[in-house]
Amino acid sequence: MKKVFYLSGVFFIFVYAQNPIIKAMKEEIKRCTKKLKIENEPPPYFISYMLVERKGVSISASMGALISVDSFSKRYIAVDVRIGDYQFDSSPDFGEETGYFNETEGSEYMNVPVPLENAVDVLRHTLWQLTEKRYKRAIKRFAEKKGRRAREVKKRDVPDFSREPKVSYIGEIKTPQVNISKWKEKLRRYSRLFKKYPWIIKSSVSFSCTAVNKYFVNSEGSTVVYGNLYYYLRIFASTKAEDGNWVKNLESFFGWSEDELPSDSIVIKKIEKLIDELLQLKEAEALEAYSGPALILSPASGVFMHEVLGHRVEAQRVESRGAGETFKDKLGKKVISPIFTVYDDPTLRYYKGQPLNGYYPYDDEGVKARRVDIIKNGVLVNFLMSRKPIKGFLHSNGHGRAQMENAFWGNDTPYPRQGNFIVETSEPKKIGELKKMLIEEARKKKKPFGLIFVKSWGGATYTGRWLMEAFQSQPIIVYKIDAETGEEKMVRGIKFGGTPLMSLDKVIAAGDDPKVFNGFCGAESGSIPVALVAPSILLSEIEVTKTPETREKPPILPPPGGEK
Question: Quick one: which of 348, 473, 46, 92 has its CA closest to 217?
């Protein structure tokens, strides 16, 4: 296939006419659009195909020995078939998704084989089967939806699907580039460093390189093709404290190329620091439930903002019979301190030299990615949109995303999701100044200490109506800072959280140190890569609770060779 970055018109057709994947998709979508019809039932008004190809290698090692070496090559196809029209169609309303899940239907869909080879006739055969299943499902959903709407008091007054411009985009198709022998030796060498510490119970170092190539075609005439190449290096270690509870520590690195991963010397220093922190955690005080001021250092602050704010500006949380609709009536109003600006920009591959794994040029509905300003000077101005409109926002802004291989669970339909979620401040402060402010807040509230959250491994949030809306973050490295002496002491065994509006109201200052947290976010449409950027953030008050306890005694014997 010819490597071209952007083409349109006749030249586009000429270059891609011979690509078997695009050829198969275009031919079958044309046939199904014209001929797919059940008597007395409406035909499809819209069909789209997305083929996702994942190729790569993953290697892991522990204690100087390889644990696994896997090469993988897999393809997934997501098919969207809609009947009705743009105003009212067979797609579920926000909040109705769980009612549409059918295990048998999902299993039958996922059991249709997707060929790894580019045989046009076999690809078309697969597309035909999947389109038939999605069409029959659409007929069932359409009838259910019409019946439900007829019974409802509150009517939806916006279209079910937005009209978007036809696009033709060809990006570069990626191929994994890995020296497997080199990485085997690297991981052996890195993981061997943990052998010197017999008190470490579990440890591992893993590397992966994955090429993700996407081919998208719809009945509106759009064609999008591009690939991304993801490199990850992850380090993990855990042990048990004397009270029987597990403590763990981890580091991860991401790059768009192998060269962007850290050098051996940097990795070794990171491992040594990780081990030192783990030993401190093992011997640290287990903190009790507490409320007081806290400083969340970057990049852990990005996880905090992602959970408390990011998910709640995705459009399905704004208009859904099942969601709390936290920010539905907050448009044009202050939701956080005016020193903050928040935007999501999937078109960025880097932020101040740091790679962002939330980059993509087009979303999973074939809409061009773009920057969306969400909060300006503390005021909410926009939401993240897919092609499912909400009141006041009738078009996509390129944030419809999905994990396409999750069709079994019914969540391969793109939903509004974050890409590169970025928080910036107009009044950055040095970390030393933020720590002084933290101590002042603790004294003002007559608290014996404040908390400093240094590192986080993730979080969760609840956006529904059945329980109180809340979020939580899972910190790894936490210090308490004495309100009188300023002494910092590591603590463990806690998580922090709260309710969104109250927590945002408690944010009073920010640092000058934005760092990137590259991770994966799971929601209705599956697990997708998301980059989070935020400076360190000071809160006047936050609540912490204890993590679950295991209470199982530490190992009776040291590991083999650990008696010394």
Answer: 46
